Amino acid sequence: MMNSMIDMKMFGALICSAAMAAGCASTTPDERADADTTANTATLRDAEVAVLTAQASAVCAPDKFDRAEAFLDAARQAQREGDEADVSVNATRAIDMSDQVKAQYALLWPNCEGTVADKIDDALEEASPNRSVSIVVGIGEVDQGELNRIYFSYDQDRLDAEDKELLYKVDTWLEEHPNQDLVIEGHADERGTDAYNLALGERRAYNVKKFLVTMGVEPERLRVVTYGEEDPAVEEADSPREYRKNRRVEFEGELSSNP
């Protein structure tokens, strides 16, 4: 009798194991979805902490830090849209990229900290940027309205929080004008070689494009152009304030070729 009871228990355990292996676990789909949401919320929180703690190291790895922020923004956007898979993927990427930022800082900090120190005097002379408005009117029969310029620190292509607030407005404008594309123009001041400034203007413009794409703008609606130092807002600049006005990204609207 005892052996029969043991056999029945073993048979029941085998049946339970087989059912779970076949996907017949006792948890419901809703319970599994709730568990995924909870796990992804925790991962997103970890990503926010990782990016925040990597910010101090961004001076040595600005491009990687920009990517970490872009992944974090994409994870937040996915959470708002209820796309749990994209929350997990982008939050994990943000954490990984933040780790790379800190690793690069640990490797390069004596050199990059010294480079930044050389620029402090120039930075201190510059007032807080007065963000002027670039107005483009009459593109065909369409009035583009007002879009703000974005200004950059010396030899930098990173977007700060205020820049991103402006780009949210650009994203809204693009949503409201689906028949128009945008040209993103990158500019630099005249310090540095022509080739270097062309590349710097391009990096600035591409960082703007990348951010707009993470917001959901179709890449084919965004065209990047770099002018380097060739189209200054202030001719023959000779002060920090005037140099800053030339380190910028501007926007031009153009009618879309798509119906």
Write the CATH fold name of the largest domain: 60s Ribosomal Protein L30, Chain: A
Oligomeric description of these chains: single chain
Compressed to H and E, one letter per element, the order equals HHHHEEEHEHEHE
The main sheet comes to: 4 strands, mixed
CATH class of the largest domain: Alpha Beta
Q: Tell the overall outline.
A: flat
Termini separation comes to 80 Å
According to DSSP, the number of beta strands is 6
The overall pLDDT, averaged over residues, is 74
Q: Give me the side-by-side strand order of the main sheet.
A: 3-6-4-5
Number of domains: 2
Share in β-strands: 5-15%
- Write the CATH homologous superfamily of the largest domain: OmpA-like domain
Q: Would you identify the CATH architecture of the largest domain?
A: 2-Layer Sandwich
Count of DSSP H/I helices? 7
Write the layout of secondary structure elements.
Elements: H1 2-21, H2 29-54, H3 62-81, H4 84-125, E1 133-136, E2 145-148, E3 150-151, H5 161-176, E4 180-187, H6 194-214, E5 222-228, H7 240-246, E6 248-255
Parallel strand pairs: 4-5
Antiparallel strand pairs: 1-2, 3-6, 4-6
